[in-house]
Write a structure and sequence with these properties.
With 342 residues, this protein is α+β, with helices and mostly antiparallel strands. The chain folds into two domains: 3-27 and 159-341, no CATH class; 33-141, Sandwich (Immunoglobulin-like), CATH 2.60.40. 57% of the residues lie in helices and 16% in strands. It contains eleven helices and ten strands. The chain is elongated.
């Protein structure tokens, strides 16, 4: 593969991923909405509904409680930060169990709603409303198995939908040479974000979410920069000790996981089980991503085997990925810093 061809491939992938980056700048508009219904009396329920905004307007979503509730839904949504929210008290004679929760507008908006129902005894149910699963029947307090299954699934979904976390893992995989060092690096990242996830979720330490998100994006920029200026003759600190970089930035990523878990909430009676299974779900999702990347790498090498010498094709593909990661993460950094500094 000659030099012009290599640059053409790089630029084509670069602009394709830049388009992806631009679309992801509106990622908050594609995030799931959030519905919380909390029992505050035998038949009274404090209801909170948060929906993402698109160009300064709330997404066209409407949450409705069972038919026996008055009022069933909020009259209007008010702007709050990067979202719109509504709060209201609903009186539901006979309670919610046996009725249905629904959200209109999921088909048109293409988004999901994370819903949490908290009972008077402190137990809660967390579930996801989609275009295919709305309305949902309201059932009684969950069992321990319900908690384990729900929070494990939420952990897997969170890491697999968290593009910034996945790009950081991908950057680490490109930085590391050797299977043993990769295992050490991934383990360091896991241990680090498990520490801060647990500490932040239990309330021992707190950081504001917007600066954390910005620093997470900057952590990806840092690793991409290390990859772009790699010199085999003079390995940097990050190349010699990638596990140290993974551990350091993993502490910050843990706060990002904790922020997502804070939105969901933890069941008061089963906090250890929910926290443990959410964390396990994150780890399983992370391992699935790593396996997928390794499998994709092997498949790509097989496909490109006839295109040209491996010594020419492999560095081109690698640098294309590195530059794409750097551009995307730099864009996120600027957007997120602008979001909380204005």
């Amino acid at each position: 593969m000659n030099r012009i061809a290599r640059h053409s491939v790089t630029l084509l992938a670069f602009f394709a991923l830049l388009a992806f980056c631009r679309a992801d700048a509106f990622a908050h508009a594609l995030d799931p909405a959030y519905l919380e219904v909390r029992a505050v009396g035998a038949e009274a329920y404090a209801t909170f509904f948060k929906v993402p905004q698109i160009r300064g307007q709330p997404m066209a979503l409407k949450a409705s409680l069972p038919e026996n509730c008055v009022p069933r839904s909020a009259e209007r949504l008010e702007p709050r930060g990067r979202a719109f929210v509504a709060n209201w008290i609903a009186h539901c004679p006979g309670g919610l169990v046996g009725g249905q929760l629904s959200v209109d507008g999921l088909v048109l908006t293409g988004t999901d709603v994370l819903a949490r129902l908290q009972f008077l005894d402190g137990r809660s149910r967390t579930f996801r409303l989609t275009a295919e699963s709305s309305p949902v029947d309201v059932v009684g307090p969950p069992t321990l198995w319900d908690v384990v299954r729900t929070y494990f699934t939420l952990g897997v979904e969170h890491i697999l939908l968290g593009i910034d976390h996945l790009l950081f893992i991908l950057a680490l995989m490109l930085l590391v040479r050797g299977t043993l060092l990769l295992v050490k690096t991934v383990t360091a990242f896991t241990v680090a974000h498990s520490i801060t996830l647990t500490a932040a979720t239990l309330g021992y330490v707190q950081l504001p979410s917007q600066p954390v998100e910005a620093v997470i994006a900057l952590s990806i920029v840092f690793v991409a920069g290390e990859l772009a200026r790699r010199d085999p003759a003079h390995p940097s600190l990050a190349e010699r000790f990638p596990w140290l970089i993974a551990f350091t930035f993993g502490l910050l990523h843990g706060f990002g996981f904790a922020s997502a878990l804070a939105d969901i909430g933890l069941p008061e009676r089963d906090i250890p089980a929910a926290l443990l299974t959410f964390n396990l779900g994150v780890e399983v999702g992370q391992l699935l991503f790593i396996v997928a990347v390794l499998a994709g790498k092997r498949a790509l090498e097989s496909v490109t085997r006839g295109i040209g010498p491996r010594s020419a094709v492999r560095p081109t593909a690698r640098m294309t990925i590195v530059y794409a990661i750097g551009v995307i993460s730099a864009y996120w950094s600027i957007e997120r810093i602008a979001g909380f500094s204005v």
